Amino acid sequence: MPLTAAELSAHPEFPHVIWDLQPKTTGRCPCGPGRGGPYDIFYELHGSGPEHILFIMGLGGLKTAWQRQSKDFGHDAQNRYSVLVFDNIGIGQSGKPYMRYTTSNMARDVQELLDHVGWTEKRSVHVVGVSMGGAVAQEFAMLEPERVATLTLVSTWARLVNTVGFVENLRNRINLFIPKSIDAQLEGARERLYSREYLEGPDALEYEVEPFPTGADRFGATELWKRQRPEMFSRVGFMLQAIAAGWHYKSAEQLTDLAEKVGRKRIQVMHGSEDKMISPPHGKVLAEELNKEAGDGKSVRYLVFEGLGHSIPIEKRAEFHNLLVELMDIAKEESLHHGRADSRET
User: Fold this and answer.
1) What pLDDT, on a 0 to 100 scale, did the predictor assign at position 335?
2) 41, 113 Cβ separation under 8 angstroms
């Protein structure tokens, strides 16, 4: 049995569940003038390398949910990579205005944040989005395709469709908003997000004092830490983000246009075969529509993680890292190829 909330709070590792990763820079970017703002988007920059990676978190997630990637890229390889993580509108240390949230508006926040930190050059940003963050990443790639060096879309969708039966689908969505005990909240979240293998396996993550007994306990402690901070995580902010996620819609024609402008070889789609939050057909449709009208050797990379749920960057940290690096290398070769072609033409 996973530890209860009380047992997690008393565990010696609980005070260290959010790693003390000292960023190179923190700041607040004023966003949203003329579209409900101004409000601040709080961000952290880790590392100082020439390869710029932007990580966009999903529904109800804090920037610290990327701490594995912040460490791996922005600290362990800080001379090669710079990592930008931030709290979306409505959560964490960012502004929480009471208004209609949309993924397209959140993409404008991303645009203004990148301008603020100076990541403005053509093909200068590797964009990684998970779940709702993947929807925001799509919107940003449509807004500024030429700024995108690579685009990684994880456990996400182009538009939500009913793939699990009407009654079950309705129940799942209503359950997100029903008040429950903290232990029931933790149980529901871990069952929706993670594979059984991860939940029942040992906690293999780095630790300060001692590991938690299982992966379920590691997740439970992280989620409990967040939910103990109502100034960072509130039901209202969660609901406003959920509305944005639910209304995200990209047509097949829009995705084809996105893929052509970014470049299909610069894009990858990842999905778990047992994802209970965003069912696997969503990832398949997304990849197929991005690949529509693709020429030989120019297809989007589509990766299905057998047996995995919604949280690929956490469950498959090393593999996820390697896949990002591989795509960056492919993009670099693409840029060199086009550079050589342009020089021959002139």
Assistant:
1) 84
2) yes
